[in-house]
Records
---
Amino acid sequence: MAKGSGPLLTDELDIVIPTIRNLDFLEMWRPFFESYHLIIVQDGDPTKTIKVPPGFDYELYNRNDINRILGPKASCISFKDSACRCFGYMVSKKKYIFTIDDDCFVAKDPSGKEINALAQHIKNLLSPSTPSSSIHCMIPFCEGADFVRGYPFSLREGVPTAVSHGLWLNIPDYDAPTQLVKPCERNTRYVNSVLTIPKGTLFPMCGMNLAFDRELIGPAMYFGLMGDGQPIGRYDDMWAGWCTKVICDHLRLGVKTGLPYIWHSKASNPFVNLKKEYNGIFWQEELIPFFQQAVLPKDCTTVQKCYVELSKQVRDKLGKVDPYFTKLADAMVTWIEAWDELNPSGPSTVLPNGKAK
Ligand SMILES: O=c1ccn([C@@H]2O[C@H](COP(=O)(O)OP(=O)(O)O[C@H]3O[C@@H](CO)[C@H](O)[C@H]3O)[C@@H](O)[C@H]2O)c(=O)[nH]1
Ligand SMILES: [Mn+2]
């Protein structure tokens, strides 16, 4: 929250939570989240009731709702994987999205002060990014700092920030092999910095503490086809991050990473994760060069056009890695079609099954 004022963007930001659990974690976030509208995407068994603490304004969508709203296009929304959260991005009507996992809690900064992660994300999104330069030793656009000598004035205006990627203390977001060999490792390092990821650089985007400008980059935030019936899991956010970064670079949009921190409390089962991740650990050796070499034509002037072009390149170049990527390329197109159907120029009548509380 800005000094001396209430929470910002309360009518322009939705909080999207994917869940298979009751949402008691919200109690800890109440001071920071209660003024915002929540979009809860319930994964797994739609007959299970998800308990939401009283006092929150929310809409809840389960698999039956997703199928009802999207019809055959629901095939692009993952089932039994946190990737389902991207449905919340699609049905939101707000300019900004903040998405958080239900095992993420309020962290404390080194002074012991509780971190309002949402306020920091908003600050990150509302200030420009500087992707056309190497990492600064100073963080521009914040009090008491400015561009250092030698930084071209022509670049100092920066570009609009599309993504704010937060980090986590305690349980690190390791892949299964790393978690297996380092089961007790915890992240205790608090780095007081927000950096723009330079143009041409990819990054491993984790979906547990993430905010973005939905109007600038929303259609690129497809959390790829994972979970039930798919040969891969826990790469949904990575896929979205790689696609998003290539498109942000092309459209001159910025991606920031660093503050805010949240406290990640749950270590998922590394053996289960290994089964989900196995192909991803293998395929990522091909995926990174693919995204590093991806070039989007000049006539790709919207996120949708960029994304459909990327899907063509996925089909052409990754389809030979595994037939899964042909299916994923199709799902990418379906996602854009569904996005445009639900987000025509006017409002769309997407009714959730949970009444707004
Ligand atoms: O089948 C499922 C499983 C989980 N969820 C919800 O998704 C998030 C993340 O779940 P969890 O914290 O259990 O998983 P992690 O291994 O810690 O994190 C992974 O999730 C992604 C980051 O968001 C990434 O793939 C990994 O870091 C929770 O809210 C669960 O309730 C689900 O919807 N469906
Ligand atoms: Mn987690």
---
Amino acid sequence: MADVVESYSYEDIEAISKFLLERCRHRPKIGIICGSGLGGLADTLQEQEAFPYESIPKFPVSTVSGHKGRLVFGVLSGKAVVCMQGRFHMYEGYSMAKVTLPVRVMKLLGVETMLVTNAAGGVNQDYVPGDIMIIKDHINFPGLCGNNPLRGPNNEKFGPRFPAMNDAYNAKLRASLRAAAKLCGLSDHMKEGVYAYLGGPAYETVAELRFLKAIGVDAVGMSTAPEVIVARHCGMKVCGLSLISNKGIMEYDPSLVIDHSEVLEAGRVRAADIQSLVSNLVKLIDE
Ligand SMILES: O=P(O)(O)O[C@H]1O[C@H](CO)[C@@H](O)[C@H]1O
């Protein structure tokens, strides 16, 4: 008998999505996960219908500042979308099942395309705070050691036991993000690179950042990869972007510090740009 890993049954997830569908008139095919400090995007939706996480049965609640904790349905660029205004992280003490529960709920709501956003530290020395990195690929550090969100009995109704991840970040959507960036004059701030997911909540040591740089990582954070794996497992198309909120500290210089308020401030500075980038992207998504 295998160890028991916390999981939600198909019926649990179906019940949550039914709860939402019965109370909401939107039928989104596009889902958006808002990263630290990037939740303002959800406030720009038209015809909003919002559900605080506390009001949704079996949903976890947000505990991190910069994550408001609401599922917001509405219209963006003429299309129905659903936004997670705040995500869940493993470092908050949540199981992988809880971290990724909203992705499966979105699947049963009818979401086919997922845009995942985050704030991340720049590891690539060419990156400066305010850059926006299109995620080309990720390295899932907890997953490499076995803490994968798909660990545990596989639910075939969602997807296969051994899903491929070599094409996790859809090439066509990445091209659409580049086109959207051009439309809103952001091309000069765009990068494309590899995101490393670490468990957190401590920021990285200098040695850890040097290690990440040596293996080809461009940006580092404490989210995203679990959501993307679960989204791909159930057949969603995925695209991701990281707002580079700070430079990773690669020198032994105690005068350099990184703080979550700096991460949130970077989100405030780029809020309008991210909103126009995402609304232009949504325009370009085929439904
Ligand atoms: O990945 P998001 O949720 O955007 O937030 C990032 O910012 C927080 C650290 O400042 C961590 O949660 C990290 O993952």
---
Amino acid sequence: MRCDLFCSVVDNFGDIGICWRLARQLQSEHQWQVTLWVDDLVSFQKICHSIKPNLASQLQNEVLVRHWTVVLPELTESDRPDLVIEALACTIPPSYLQWMASFTDKPLWLNLEYLSAEDWVHGCHALPSPHPTLPLQKYFFFPGFTEQTGGLLRERGLVDSLVKSRNSTELQQQFWQKLGLLDAMNYQQKISLFAYSQAQIRPWLEQLANAAQTTLLLVPQGQLATDLTQLFSELQTGRFDHNSLSIRILDFMPQPMYDELLACCDINFVRGEDSVIRAHWAGKAFIWQIYRQEEQAHLIKLQAFLDKYLQHASQEQKACIEQLHMAWNLEQDISTEFATFKEFSEQIQLHNKKWQEYLIQQQDLASNLVRFAENKLIMSRNFS
Ligand SMILES: Cc1cn([C@H]2C[C@H](O)[C@@H](COP(=O)(O)OP(=O)(O)O[C@H]3O[C@@H](C)[C@H](O)[C@@H](O)[C@H]3O)O2)c(=O)[nH]c1=O
């Protein structure tokens, strides 16, 4: 099977993060021949350091990465893919659509949608939509948390390997060494903090600094790290130590390392669409800052997720997790909510384990997509 996957980087790293994981998985687990078209190789390089932004085409992890520029290179019949994926609301160029439509044996066209836990997704997943003028139709493919959706990205063996990292002091030690954080194991609590802006973050940081427990707070480079440097000028050096709190600014690391970071921390603040799912597989307590949308539409999506995730949680757990999520997403001071969250940390850990078990019973997104595409192609080829 040959697949062309189109990815446009709107902002941040979620678009390329998701597409890069999917491309690698389709290649390594399903032996597909994948071409990943990306319009921003500089962002891509942040999460895959071997990317060379000046190249029009390059092979990375057996995936052909092509720079998607305004004018696409000339394509010939021998380039014809079996499947074309238009990821995360990007728009395939009209010239490419015309080229697709020119074949008798037309490629299958999928629109990989954004993640949502809302129930309307069940009715829209896998629906076809005919192109208004060309003899083509595309199918909507929705990731999600239930069997009625396309599922979640999860590589084979990932959860087992993260459990190993979680349970082995030696592997953790090696990991922290790779990051250059030789004293990480000495801290009683390690928190990864990947988030958008947080206007009221200071009181929470003071709470951590004044706590009995020592905390190592790991913040990836980006807007939040810049904001924290405004609060604590010492952070210009990438380090800040005050009483029980140590903050370290980290360079962006390759995706597999980021996955391991989440497994080695005790609490993970995650954001967007991809890191939140990684936090699920890491199996630690997590707090999600959802990507903001106009007119607070994201809060409806957040509540839909919390309703699913906390469906079987006790009333107290539900209240404490919901309150922390709401305060964090509304950029309020989270000191009180975080203290309660910590009180319940053992129960939250157990709850997350059950939630993870429920999700793992479902097929992963790449496998669902492969099955869907193969069935559709077999049907269309039988009819033509
Ligand atoms: C911090 C870090 C992240 N990453 C990866 C993990 C993820 O694949 C990616 C971050 O993506 P997200 O977690 O989704 O957060 P994000 O905020 O960067 O991405 C967002 O982008 C918007 C355009 C989308 O519309 C949002 O829905 C969302 O996906 O970066 C690394 O590989 N290394 C790192 O060091």
---
Amino acid sequence: MNHHQNHVRQQLADQLAEAIAEALKTDLAEQERVLLVISGGSTPVMFFQTLSTKSLPWERVDITLADERWVDEQSSESNARLVREHLVQDKASSARFVPLTSTAATPEQGVADVSDQITFLAWPASAVVLGMGSDGHTASLFPDSRELDLALSSGEPLVAVRTPSQPQPRITLSADRLHQARRHFLHITGEDKRTVLARALAGDDARKLPIRAFFSCPLAIYWAP
Ligand SMILES: O=C1O[C@H](COP(=O)(O)O)[C@@H](O)[C@H](O)[C@H]1O
């Protein structure tokens, strides 16, 4: 990343963190607890770091993930580890983070337990912050997942997914559950993802570019080069 990219991506992260903090404050004025759903991957690190410095009654905020790789939480591939290291820190250290993990050997075996863990959260979420890969996947709704149709159509909160292009099995909130939010944000950077998003907006079907599943709700797009 060059200096200019770093600068504009930090600005983007600051703007998104401000919008999310405002959304949480608005809902906290009316609800005892609120829920924030975030994504993993590499893009959100600056956003997490900035959000963790915001003054909020974080002890009334629950945080969970849109998706997770079925790996040990100590693994560098773990989205939960990323959230603990970069978001549940500083002022946000009193937030309650509910990871999409269990001790089960496979996501298929763990999905019921993880579903129980997220049931009590304050749905609909105040905000869902999605990411997107350069294949058009969002959360773990991958174009080449065997379970993509299920994840796009299921009324269950979570789906275990196996994806040939990905090294690990995963668990993902279903599209239905990800839709259960007051606000949706998409946080992406770089020319590649801009091109993919443009293709998706031009009308390819959701099985090819799963991000399209979120074009049915107001989606605030946060993009920087
Ligand atoms: O695998 C994942 O990828 C997407 C995008 O990640 P990025 O590294 O390109 O930012 C992410 O939104 C998703 O949560 C994650 O599990």
